[in-house]
Amino acid sequence: MTIMAWTHILLRYGEIFLKGKNKPYFVKKLLSNIHAITGKKAQDVRSRFVMPYFDNHIDLKRVFGLTSYSLSVRVEKDIDLIVKQAALLAGSGSFKIATKRSDKSFPITSPDMNVQVGQYVESHSDATFSFDTPDVIIHIEINQEGAYLFTDKVPCFGGLPTGVEGKVELLVENQASLLAGLLFMKRGCTVIPVMKNDVDISVLEKYSPGQLVKKEKEEGNLLVSGQTFETLSEYDEEGTVFRPLIAYSDERIKRELERYTTL
Known about the structure:
By secondary structure, this protein is of the alpha/beta class. Helices cover about 30% and strands about 25% of the residues. Strands 1, 2, 3, 4, 5, 6, 7, 8 and 9 form a nine-stranded mixed β-sheet that branches.
């Protein structure tokens, strides 16, 4: 496929859709976290975030709450501009078109767009249409801001924006503790590391939209531990202890932690 000069990034979120009247608060927090982690600002456009392209876009994977993003090319909502851009994206293999029209004032329906763009691409490129097994799917999203074309989706970790569900103290004892902390951050909690042992917490810092302040002793009533069934023991501390890894094996802990540390 022809290497494109991407202009924008489309970002998607999932669970926030379920938050009803609280959705605006979750959206605002997610936008804030994007800015805190990447240094770039995104715009909310009808349940989709849009931001200018930037080279270190892989940083977006460290923003909990995002489910995926796509590098895209934005053009004006003009059929002539859209079809020409689609032909550039098609390359020389097989393709199909998938249109989503959130701006209902755009005069061409999604099925008609698929047909018109597909016909143009076939007659103005070396690509051939394939409904069942295309080499590339050219997505076209038409919203109030313009028409965005893309071919791939980069998966993110999903969950909820860190910071929407209050604070918990994370008992940092070993590597498993780091995974337990990440899982709670993914569920919207702000973690406060309580350093039981000398453990590198840089992975937690990478995913946290705010600065993590280490503590030597717990003070709250909500504690998170990385204990598993094999390492289960009681703590002397008072309060409720959450053990999200209780059913995890060592192999699973290592495998899942690697997903976060390899970014």
